[in-house]
Amino acid sequence: MEERPETELISIPATPRASTPEILTPSGQRSPRPASKEAKSSTAWTPTSFISPRFLSPIGTPMKRVLINMKGYLEEVGHLTKLNPQDAWLPITESRNGNAHYAAFHNLNAGVGFQALVLPVAFAFLGWSWGILSLTIAYCWQLYTLWILVQLHEAVPGKRYNRYVELAQAAFGERLGVWLALFPTVYLSAGTATALILIGGETMKLFFQIVCGPLCSSNPLTTVEWYLVFTSLCIVLSQLPNLNSIAGLSLIGAITAITYSTMVWVLSVSQQRPPTISYEPLSLPSFSASVFSVMNALGIVAFAFRGHNLAMEIQATMPSTFKHPAHVPMWKGAKVAYFFIALCLFPVAIGGFWAYGNLMPSGGILNALYGFHSHDIPRGLLAMTFLLVVFNCLSSFQIYSMPVFDSFEASYTTRTNRPCSIWVRSGFRVFYGFISFFIGVALPFLSSLAGLLGGLTLPVTFAYPCFMWVLIKKPSKYSFNWYFNWILGWLGIAFSLAFSIGGVWSMVNSGLKLKFFKPPN
User: Fold this and answer.
1) CA 42, CA 46: separation in Å to the nearest integer?
2) Cα(199)–Cα(203) distance, integer angstroms
3) Which residues form the Amino acid transporter transmembrane domain (predicted)?
4) Dist CA 229 CA 298 (whole Å)
């Protein structure tokens, strides 16, 4: 039979690349529908394994085009992850339209905050050499463990670990994973949210004092009342339904964090240093006291690198297909975020210690700036710095509270087998906001426990990811990769115990009287 000329071939339009099937969630966002039972993935066979070049070779051009387009479609459909239908109702996984920009905003908002302002306090106990060395090692270490978490998000074909606890369960087992990961992640999220209420309320009070000055009324708001004002603002903003919906707030938090971090260290180094300044590490009366204070200082350095408890959740907001896995945009955004995090943390730590030395008050560089230079810096500039801190605390509260909101709603949807209504969701968030407020009022010294918080939550950032990599990826036994991750993991556990002891000693020794941003007398 005579073949048709090439110009007479019927043109078949290319089939558009398949996208993940979606369903409409309670808040109006779109989320991927769980894969059906027919779309089962297998390591031995894939939906496109039969469409090979040898199979296509005897087929004419039009049919070949159809099969190639079908191959692209099946590659997408064959990669559909088996999702829990409940995920479409929960705030973390409700919307999966995130991208690299959202990842950068969320990571930067979670990674820079009030904990950066107390880094010069750690340098006062460690000195120049050990301070810079410990900060550099901690930065590189946590960047490596962040890369591990990004890679492990879809380590098992057909499964996405959308939450840190889920990944811990896959690595350590169902029960042990919950015991190891649930307490530090919840403690880090809830403890950070409570500390943000304390710091935000105290900073709002200082902002009001600076702006109002001598014109203030004779009955100003008390500190607890300022806590309540800040909590109310947090509750209003927390009504945004899911993690992707707060991307704008995370962008505001990232911009304000970079801005006030830069302003604080620039204003500090531009002023004349105190005449009695010294850069020798603070000496304490006994050797044991010196050791515990150094451990507490290292705990402060460790606490500066928080946010790994949110890495899985941030990546869960992104779509993932065979050709476009979620780890690619996540890692791009994380690299940009941690570049700016380094630009914030290192100048604040080094510049703050250079400006105040071991005269640094326990509240951190903002406390020192207010105490030493409140009369030398224009009131407007100082007020702007405090206002930016307030905005950053409001933004950080939202992203750190989202895993707790997710846990509340997961418990509700599991019991009722239906999504939370708007009123139930709002009730959970109002309840959580005021519980955090009451804890802050009952434990007003919580914001000074940076060393203890760093020690207790250190495994989440520095230890557990290394163990997870070995247990899930299973590198060759006794290889460099195997030894390296086991050593890093156990070092992280040892440091966690040491830093926690140092944090407890510092808390008891100070009589629980330290507070952030409290102006010195």
Assistant:
1) 6
2) 6
3) 97-508
4) 34
